[in-house]
Every structure is written in structure tokens, then in C-alpha cells.
Write a structure and sequence with these properties.
The complex is a heterodimer of chains A (about 280) and B (about 250). With about 280 residues, chain A is of the alpha/beta class. In chain A, about 40% of the residues lie in helices and about 20% in strands. Chain A has two domains: about 170 residues, P-loop containing nucleotide triphosphate hydrolases (Rossmann fold, 3-Layer(aba) Sandwich); about 35 residues, no CATH class. In chain A, the strands form two sheets. A six-stranded mixed beta sheet of chain A has the order 6-7-8-3-9-10, with helices on both faces. In chain B, strand 1 and strand 2 form a beta hairpin. Chain B is mainly alpha-helical and about 250 residues long. The chains are: A alpha/beta (about 280), B mainly alpha (about 250). The structure holds adenosine-5'-diphosphate (ADP) and magnesium ion.
Chain lengths: ~280, ~250
């Protein structure tokens, strides 16, 4: 199997001595949809910054497409180009006054020609549905709009992997759903999408693979059903079982549905079984 | 400044090419300054005000309100020009504790001329700021080959002002909700806490922002592509005619 990104024995200690990551091992396949779950402070953001090359691992290595990333400008730029992060708070990411200029920043840094940059910026603005605001100043936009600008920021770089740090936190239900729809669009185009989230319903129904973190360590990883059906993992990570899965298991226990029916991932699939 | 920036976004001319707006207002301003003629200034005041309210569709109430601020200062500073100690042949003579002041024809003329000249320049600058959002002004400065470092600075300052304002207003609300400004002593205390936490916040935010920039391959220079603005032949012709009329008035009239 070819992995697009591998993490081996990754440790990271902040300059003030906080051991934020302890011996992380991950293997990520191309085109996968991955959710990272874990309580606040469990090291999700730190891991992402390491994956993107902004923070340099204290120990261990990051391997992109079979090639180990060395601590030099060329490798780091290559990693940053291919692994894009959409930060949790759009206000720390957006620094330009104007939306169009803001979105073009990443593409210009890649050294593309003007026509290609304009083409990419337009495409990113359209696919995140903010083309109408392109001449606006970012601080006059709503939170949801800023969030979409921060996504367009990364889309212009056309990375192979896009990381979203808590994309649905502080978005309302409608906008959360819109954002998840965007993730699906990206992954259909072959992009690997990694998100961190506290929303176990989204994690369960959306992802192909789940990584559970606690206090800087990976506690468990696997397909959603394997993670959420194991009571001990759930208890240790203080997670709750997704509602769909809970109902399904209850129905199965009471023999109300056939035991051979496939495990539902979302409401639609559950209702299908109940028909 | 922030209110003006918001108004500029609602103006009818915000889509127009910033360079056209910039050249229009700055050259009108320069012509007013060079000629320094009463009729020219009056013409510019009326013409620009009409453009601001009718063409850019800024409500007269807002425009008038904004004009009042500089006009007040202008009035105050014109007074010394009107008065002179030379009261022989003055139109009016005042006497304050044995010292005589006079308003002569010459000083009246000078005062009026200066007043109108400054007034017209204020109108020109308001035309620029009320139709051109700050980001467009930065765009113009970039086109004018001003050293990059200044523009990067202005760029970041412009964005950061809003972040600092937002955070500070949030802190003030939170302090107020816990009676932080109940009396003078507590107010001082709260303000000092506000300032120190703003400082810490700025430091943290700048670090975070730098990380976010690095994550997008930043390497020492903030580069991006400008929005494209189309030139409008109609506007350019209008500007040319307007400037010609101004020069004509400047030469022909007093
Ligand atoms: N800039 C920093 N300096 C020192 N410690 C930090 C810094 N950023 C985060 N940490 C610490 O690292 C740990 C992991 O944080 P983080 O990666 O932000 O977790 P999460 O994103 O999962 O909430 C926390 O204990 C946090 O206090
Ligand atoms: Mg985090």
C-alpha cells in the first residue's frame, strides 16, 4: 500500500517544555477522509502544525510520498505546499484587508504565473461560495464568511492534503453542514481531507478513518465502527457513542432488525434498514 | 476612520477604478492649492459636494456631519488671520483692554481666500476617502511604487487595527458586565488591566499570525495579486474636462 503521508515516532516539545506530542505513529492513504478527535489540549493543533512543517519535530520523522522531510527550506516548502492547513480561528489566518488579495497570497508564494493565479483564485472563491465578496474587506464579513475565505486561502494552493482544525466549532448547524459538504467535494476530487472535531456525529458519519488522541498520544485508530463500538476506548477518551450507532445496536440486540444488515453510517442508511 | 471606511464600502463609486478616483481628487486639490482663487474654490466645493452626494450617493446628512468637524477647526484657525493690529483704515475696529484690533479689507480677503481654499481641499480629500475604501487606497500606493516595506506595514496595521478594536471592545463589555467601570477607582483599575491584556493578546496574535503565514509558504515577503480594475473611458474624459474647467476658472477669474 502506498501512503501519502506517514508519521513515525513523532514527538514534539514546545520551547517552554510542554510535551505536546508523544510518539505519534500514523499512516495516511491518499484520498482518505480522516477525523482526529480528542479533548481540548490533547495535541491536535500541534500535530497539524508538525504535519505542515511549521513546527519541526523534536524527534521522529514525517514522510511525504515515501520521502523523508529533512529540515531544509526546499523540503519544508514542498511539505507546506502539499499539506494545507485551515486554521481554527479565521482571524489569525486572514491578514490582508481585501478578500481577493488574501486568497491570492498562497498561490503567489508558489511562484505561479499571473493568469494561473487569477484562475485559481476565481475557482477557489467560487467553490467556497464567496465570489460576491471578493472586493470586500475581511473584517466586514460574518464569521461563517471569514471561515470560507480561510478555506479558499488554502484551496488556491491546490494541496494534496487539506487539514481543517476544528472546522465546525462555532459554526451553526446549517453552516456546519455546508462545510462538511465542501469536504466531500474536495475528497471526491482526490484530495485527502483531515479534520479535527468534537462533533462525534460528523466524525462517525463522514470519515473513513478515525484517530483518537489523548494527552499527546494516539490512543486508538481505525475505521469509525471499530472505534465507536468499543466501550473501553469510548470510556477512556470520554467520548459518547454516536446516536445512529447506539440506536442500531439496541435494535439489533432486541432482534428488531436482521442481524445481517450492514452498519448504518447516517440517518438515511438507518431509515433504509428500518423500512 | 473606521466609520469612513464603512461608508466608502457603501458608496456608489466603490467599484470605480481607485486610480481614477485618486488622480481626480488629488489633482483637483493641487489645482486649488496652486491657484488659490476664491471663485475656483467655491466652484470646487460645490462641484465635489454634488459629486459626493449625487454620484457617489453618500447621504447629505452623513457628508454634512463629517464636514462639520474640520470646518469647526477651520473657523477657529481663520480668526487670527482676520484680525490685525493695523487698524488704520480698517473696516471694523475692536478694543480689548486698551489694545485695538482691526479687520482690514486685505485681512478679510486673505481670510476668506484661505478659508475657501482649505474648505475645497477638505472636500477633495473627503471625495477620496468616502468613495475609496482603505484597501483600494493601498492598491493605489502599490501602483505608485512606494517602498514595499511601508505598504506591508500599512497593510498589516490596517488589518490589526480591526483585530485590536474587536478584542478590546469584547474585553470592555466583559469588564462592564462585571461592574468594572462602576466608579473612578475601579475604572482606572479596569483600564490598566485592559491595556496589559491587549498587550499580551497582541503578542500572542502576532505569533499565531506568523505561524499561519508560514503555513502558506511565506518567506520574508508579503506578495499577493491585486484585484483588477477596469478603466472607464467615460470617467477619464470626465476627469480631464473637469480639470480643464478648473484651470480655465483659475486663470480667468479672481
Ligand atoms: N505555543 C505554545 N507554547 C507552549 N505550549 C503550547 C503552545 N500551544 C499549545 N501548547 C500546549 O500543547 C498542548 C497541546 O495543545 P494543542 O495542540 O493546541 O491541543 P488541541 O488542539 O488538541 O486543543 C496543550 O497542553 C497546550 O497547552
Ligand atoms: Mg486546537
Amino acid at each position: 500500500m502506498d501512503y501519502i503521508l506517514e508519521v513515525e515516532n513523532l514527538c514534539y516539545t514546545y520551547p517552554d517544555g510542554t510535551e505536546a506530542l508523544k510518539d505519534i505513529n500514523l499512516k495516511i492513504e491518499k484520498g482518505e477522509k480522516i477525523s482526529l478527535i480528542g479533548l481540548n489540549g490533547s495535541g491536535k493543533t500541534t500535530l497539524f502544525l508538525n504535519l505542515n512543517g511549521v513546527l519541526k519535530p523534536s524527534k521522529g520523522k514525517i514522510i511525504y510520498k515515501g520521502k523523508e522531510i529533512k529540515n531544509n527550506r526546499k523540503d519544508l516548502n514542498m511539505l507546506r505546499k502539499n499539506v494545507g492547513i485551515v486554521f481554527q480561528n479565521p482571524d489569525t489566518q486572514l491578514f490582508c484587508g481585501n478578500v481577493y488579495e488574501e486568497v491570492s497570497f498562497g498561490a503567489v508564494n508558489l511562484g505561479l504565473c499571473d493568469d494561473e493565479i487569477r484562475r485559481r483564485v476565481d475557482r477557489a472563491l467560487i467553490s467556497t461560495n464567496i465570489y460576491d465578496y471578493k472586493d470586500k474587506a475581511v473584517h466586514y464579513l460574518s464569521y461563517g464568511q471569514k471561515k470560507r475565505v480561510s478555506i479558499a486561502d488554502i484551496l488556491v494552493m491546490e494541496p494534496e492534503i487539506i487539514i481543517f482544525d476544528e472546522p465546525t466549532s462555532s459554526l451553526d448547524l446549517y453552516h456546519s453542514k455546508q462545510v462538511v459538504k465542501l469536504f466531500d467535494e474536495f475528497s471526491q476530487k482526490g484530495t485527502t481531507v483531515i479534520i479535527s472535531t468534537h462533533d462525534i456525529e460528523i466524525a462517525y458519519s463522514w470519515s473513513d478513518y478515525i484517530v483518537v488522541m489523548k494527552k499527546g498520544k494516539v490512543l486508538a485508530q481505525g475505521v469509525p465502527y471499530d472505534i465507536f463500538s468499543k466501550e473501553d476506548i469510548l470510556r477512556e477518551c470520554m467520548l459518547e457513542k454516536p446516536l445512529i450507532l447506539e440506536i442500531f445496536e439496541n435494535l439489533k440486540e432486541k432482534n428488531l432488525i436482521k442481524s445481517s444488515s450492514s452498519i448504518p453510517k447516517n440517518k438515511k442508511e438507518l431509515l433504509e434498514i428500518l423500512k | 476612520m473606521i466609520i469612513i471606511d464603512k461608508i466608502a464600502y457603501s458608496s456608489n463609486l466603490k467599484e470605480a477604478n481607485p486610480l481614477e478616483k485618486f488622480i481626480f481628487s488629488i489633482s483637483t486639490l493641487v489645482i486649488c492649492l496652486i491657484f488659490s482663487k476664491i471663485y475656483l474654490s467655491i466652484f470646487v466645493i460645490f462641484a465635489i459636494s454634488i459629486l459626493i452626494t449625487k454620484r457617489a450617493k453618500i447621504p447629505f446628512k452623513i457628508y454634512g456631519g463629517l464636514l462639520l468637524i474640520p470646518l469647526l477647526f477651520l473657523f477657529l484657525s481663520i480668526i487670527p488671520l482676520l484680525i490685525s493690529f493695523d487698524y488704520e483704515g480698517a473696516l471694523m475696529v475692536f478694543k480689548v483692554i486698551n489694545i485695538k484690533f482691526g479687520v482690514t479689507k486685505y485681512s478679510l480677503n486673505l481670510g476668506l481666500k484661505t478659508f475657501l481654499k482649505v474648505f475645497s481641499c477638505i472636500c477633495c480629500l473627503y471625495f477620496l476617502t468616502l468613495t475609496t475604501p482603505s484597501t483600494q487606497i493601498l492598491w493605489v500606493l502599490r501602483k505608485m511604487m512606494i517602498p514595499k516595506i511601508f505598504i506591508e506595514f500599512m497593510q498589516l496595521i490596517y488589518r490589526c487595527i480591526f483585530i485590536v478594536l474587536e478584542v478590546s471592545s469584547m474585553i470592555i463589555v466583559s469588564q462592564n458586565s462585571r461592574l468594572g467601570y462602576r466608579d473612578l477607582k475601579r475604572s482606572f483599575n479596569s483600564i490598566s488591566k485592559l491595556l496589559s491584556s491587549l498587550f499580551v493578546m497582541s503578542y500572542k496574535k502576532s505569533e499565531d499570525m506568523f505561524i499561519a503565514l508560514e503555513a502558506r509558504c511565506y518567506n520574508g515577503e508579503i506578495k499577493f495579486i491585486d484585484a483588477k480594475y477596469n478603466y472607464s473611458i467615460k470617467n477619464i474624459l470626465f476627469i480631464l474636462f473637469f480639470l480643464l474647467i478648473l484651470i480655465f476658472i483659475g486663470f480667468k477669474f479672481k
